[in-house]
Amino acid sequence: MSKKYKFLDNEKPYFVTFTVVNWIDLFTRNVYKDIFLDAVRYCQQNKDLNVFAWVIMTNHVHMIVGSRGNPLSNIMRDLKRHTSEKLHIALEANKRESRREWMLWLMTRAGSKLGLKFQLWQPESHPMELFSPFIANQKLRYLHQNPVKAGFVSNEIDWKYSSAGDYHGRKGLLEIMLI
User: Fold this and answer.
1) Is it the case that residue 1 has pLDDT exceeding 80?
2) Which ranges carry the Transposase IS200-like domain (predicted)?
């Protein structure tokens, strides 16, 4: 089994990506982004999660994370499971969501391919250990530039659902530890 995408050293920070199955643009609505952020806050307060940087895009999330004790693989597993359940419930309940049936159908279909009833996230989060300051800063820049490269904003600090502002003296939506 490959060691390339595993949490091997719980003491190090990792760059992770959570991608919605079929690259569905789930996070175009703030309600869904807020559900994800609430779950991250819970993990910060109750599961030893350290967040160094983050960005929510329309169909994926990038984070630089670490742990104060609990195995990072367990924290990430729990975060993905919880957000999948909560977002599934929110999607089913949101009768005003114009893409609701289509998204639920795609997620149900993705789950059936894995022997599950429902699959919101792609199975892998591809953790990449940030073993040097150079690599950490490279991933930090990449993460914060995502909304700029997507054309959503012209300056990274203008993307509300990101830690870019924290790195420029502004208070963001999550508590973070600067790299």
Assistant:
1) no
2) 10-146
